[in-house]
Amino acid sequence: MIVEFGHFALVLAVVVALFQTVVPLWGSLTKQPRLMETAKPAAILQFVLLCFSFAALTYAYVVSDFSVANVAANSHSTKPLIYRISGVWGNHEGSLLLWVLILALFGSAVAIFGNELPQTLRANVLSVQASIALAFGIFMLATSNPFLRLENPPLDGRGLNPILQDPALALHPPFLYAGYVGFSIAFSFAIAALIEGRINAAWARWVRPWTLAAWMCLTLGIAMGSWWAYYELGWGGWWFWDPVENASFMPWLAGTALLHSALVMEKRETLKVWTILLAILTFSLSLMGTFLVRSGVLTSVHAFAVDPERGVAILLIMTIFVGGGLALFALRAGELRQGGLFAPISREGALVLNNVLLTTATATVLVGTLYPLLLEGLTGAKISVGPPFFNMTFIPLMVPLLIALPFGPFLPWKRGDLQGVAQRLIIAALIGLVAMVATMAVASRGPWLAPIMMAIGVYVMVGALQELAFRAKVGSAGREEVLRRLWNLPRSVYGTALAHFGVGLMVIGIVATSAYRIETVLVMKPGDKVDIANYELTFKGVAPFRGPNYREQVATFDVSRDGVPLTTLSPSKRVYDAPPQPTSEAGIHAAWRGDLYTVLGDAQVEDGGYAIRLYFNPLVRFIWLGALLMFIAGGISLSDRRLRVGAPRRKSRQPAVAVAPAE
Question: Less Cβ crowding at N or C end of the chain, within 10 Å?
Answer without folding.
Answer: N
